[in-house]
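pls read this protein:
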Amino acid sequence: MKQELTPTHTFQYIDEILAQQSINLLSLNPQKKIITSFAELENLITEQNTDIEILTNLQQTLEIIVCTQLQNFPENIFWDFDFLVSSMLRQALLANEGAIPFIKVFGEKMVSLVEMFGTKTEIRFRYVHDFMYGFEWARWVQKEPQKRAYIEPFSLVFLDYLLAKGKELVQRINHGQVVSYKLCDTGYRNPFTFSREPEDEYRLLTYLAEEQLIPVAVWNWNASPVWNKPFQEMRQELALKLNIQPQKH
């Protein structure tokens, strides 16, 4: 018989936390407007694993990640989590050191990452989109594809790279050495030349999703991440095509 999670540790509780926020839980899935609920994700998880300790740790870690994201990226637009949860579970079950230690380390790194790049630090990015939907990962893989093509977007290796990059970026900001990461007049940093105001970000990313130009389709539990397309260039070109205005600094 399947063990039930205690009420304080249900995945539905994460849905309730999200429901209390004044945000639209939009998905980038071209076939669906709203994200997969965590209650639905629980069903997908338990198809693969019913160990109560693993389920409890997964739920607790995801709850912390979601809360941290809400606090540090309050203006984020797209909130898909399917593939992140799928990847997290798969890696946990494969981890030599054991599933529980992996889940804990994964959670710690994710929280550090979200806090480092969010609105409460010097970096002040507005959205988690570049990380969650794999744009940063694809760019990283493209630099050394022979070494990196088989490293997952939500692997500890890539999370460590981003944490190191974040620390370096904070140092550069503090020393006034940033060129492409200047603060916009909105108070956020935007490394792109085009506007990323919410309406522009929404238009651009939904168009990219329809054209299958998102590196990691996080809305898909069984996504196959793609790194070998010129995502950055296509994003720039599409911004021009959609007549998205240059970013004001």
Notes: The CA atoms of residues 194 and 246 lie 4 Å apart. The chain has one domain: 7-241.
